[in-house]
Amino acid sequence: AKYALERKAFGKPISTLQSIQNKIADMVVARDAARLLTWRAARLKDEKKKFTREAAMAKLAASEAATFCSHGAIQILGGMGYVSDMPAERHYRDARITEIYEGTSEIQRLVIAGDVFKEYQ
Fold this sequence. Notes:
The protein is mainly α. Helices cover about 70% and strands about 5% of the residues. It has five helices and two strands; from the N terminus they run H-E-E-H-H-H-H. The protein has a two-stranded antiparallel ribbon. The relative contact order is 0.11.
């Protein structure tokens, strides 16, 4: 957000562009949703309650939010986002791997769906 306030294009900060505002808003929603899901799973675990579905939901949301937000940051940064010594480029690489290791996003979806179906059997 700071970069968007400082970077000028066409004589005004890029933060005034609706597309940039939409990206920032979507990134904040994804980040906060993942955070809240993580806190819910942690609370259930602390309370010694079943938390398998919630943990899978948190892992899925957090890994996809990280990829989504880092990709959005690269887009907002433009050409500077692709420079390998910029943090955004490294964050994107780091975020992508979170969707692969410790249970892929597809596996997390199977865990979630399987738990939902158990409710109706």
